[in-house]
Automatic annotation (TrEMBL):
GO MF term set: tRNA-2-methylthio-N(6)-dimethylallyladenosine(37) synthase activity
Top enzyme category: transferase
Domain MTTase N-terminal residue range list: 51-169
Keywords for the protein's UniProt record, in alphabetical order: 4Fe-4S, Cytoplasm, Iron, Iron-sulfur, Metal-binding, S-adenosyl-L-methionine, Transferase, tRNA processing
Function in brief: Catalyzes the methylthiolation of N6-(dimethylallyl)adenosine (i(6)A), leading to the formation of 2-methylthio-N6-(dimethylallyl)adenosine (ms(2)i(6)A) at position 37 in tRNAs that read codons beginning with uridine.
Superkingdom in the source lineage: Bacteria
Cofactor(s) required for function per UniProt: [4Fe-4S] cluster
Positions of [4Fe-4S] cluster 1 binding: 60, 96, 130
NCBIfam families: miaB-methiolase (TIGR01574), MiaB/RimO family radical SAM methylthiotransferase (TIGR00089)
Family classification: Belongs to the methylthiotransferase family. MiaB subfamily.
Quaternary structure annotation from Swiss-Prot or TrEMBL: Monomer.
Gene source species: Paenibacillus hodogayensis
Organismal lineage: Bacteria, Bacillati, Bacillota, Bacilli, Bacillales
HAMAP family noted in UniProt: tRNA_metthiotr_MiaB (MF_01864)
Protein name: tRNA-2-methylthio-N(6)-dimethylallyladenosine synthase
Amino acid sequence: MDKTIPKSDKDYSIYFQPPSLKEAKKRGKEDVSVHYEAGIADDMKTIGVGKRYLIRTYGCQMNEHDTEVMKGMLEDMGYEPTEDKLDADIILLNTCAIRENAEDKVFGELGHLKTLKQERPGLILGVCGCMSQEESVVNRIMQKHAFVDIIFGTHNIHRLPALLKEAYYGKEMVVEVWSKEGDIIENLPKKREGMKAWVNIMYGCDKFCTYCIVPYTRGKERSRRPEDVLAEIRDLARKGFQEITLLGQNVNAYGKDFTDLTYTFGDLMDDVRKIDIPRIRFTTSHPRDFDDRLIEVLAKKGNLVEHIHLPVQSGSTEVLKRMSRKYSREHYLQLVAKIKQAIPDVMLTTDIIVGFPGETDEQFEETLSLVREVRYDSAFTFIYSPRDGTPAAGMEDNVPEDVKKERLKRLNDLMTVIARERNELLRGEIVEVLVEGESKTNPDVLSGRTRTNKLVHFYGSKELSGRFVHVKVTEPQTWLLKGELVQAQPARVV
Ligand code: SAH
Ligand code: SF4
Ligand code: F3S
């Protein structure tokens, strides 16, 4: 539904679909259409000349990549980037709704921007990203932050030029949040920087984990056509990118929505493997859909790196059931065993939520024991945060706050020990490093990443930036490997 709502009209509720599991589960598979954009309209091509933009990005890689698309469109309209908000003619907040603290940050920033907007009424302020898909957030912005000029949703990014036009020429707040969620927009400009690139292979999520807002903010699961994905990656290879991360909330569900062809994530990886890009990563994979075909393809290695981010969320089958993750502890551990057997030097990382409603001490202990068994190299750990409208928000949240914090601390302490031990195994090994540039703290020290995405610091000349080198690990630390550059020596790649 397309709508532009005048500031004075107070009833916005009819324009939104608040999170509703029942409604969202009715999603059809047949109405995905792919649109190929023709580029910026002629009347908008120079509208930004002499003006500057700033985009603040919150949340996951999906949002980071959406920001690249918006930068691409803004620069095609003549805008130039700035990092200084005092210097910006447009400021966009690309928001995240995953946990309450993510939302709090955005409202805090809006508070700061109010003064700026009062001083410079010509400044255009926009809010986009996942929070804009939530009706309660949009209402709150309308009521308490009425100085915002544009609100647009995750399905409306390609409409940015048109929305800007409305904001410039109209006097009212421009709100456009489509609840239609079946489309894929191709050919949007993207501003990529550096040597690494993100490529969306699919959008949305149909998993409906009971705690998670993403299926509502990002819409239904829909895969880009393989030919479009492969053409984009080939183009990035031609442009000299060294590393590509394939993006999706649930990448291994890729292709399941195609009605006219059988082509899975394993098939896609097998085709991407043949493209001349040194490193290919992907995020995020869901344990439920991790099939044997995918393991078999990943084991072929080459440019497919030995790192798998495999969120487990909990080590307790009972909690997993209430999270609706659709796998058990045993299934997850079997999968890990299978992966380790096929790829012995694999590095596994994960996401874990503590303090899910009803999580008992014993169930939390099961998470710790699973972490000890899998021995992850790192983990993103979170305290459960209720999200309005999700099924878990209606469950009794009987774990006291201090218990949640204590569990998080115990989990993080354990992860620190394991990460340190995992890195210690690399002492004396030679690793292949993609050099990203000078380290943040010392210009003489270069910083880069291994195939398994571990951070490496070593002394070397700046000219090595963007190149692959071999580094001997001399001082493994918990979250960093310190090493020495190895000259012209064949490496055992780790
Ligand atoms: N699609 C990915 C995850 C995307 S969100 C997957 O399924 O693995 C990233 C992580 O945020 C999740 O893995 C989960 O650990 C965490 N998360 C999501 N919703 C949350 C909530 N309501 N409270 C706390 N953590 C949450
Ligand atoms: Fe959220 Fe689950 Fe979908 Fe991941 S798979 S985005 S955690 S609903
Ligand atoms: Fe956040 Fe949306 Fe990503 S809620 S984690 S930005 S998909």
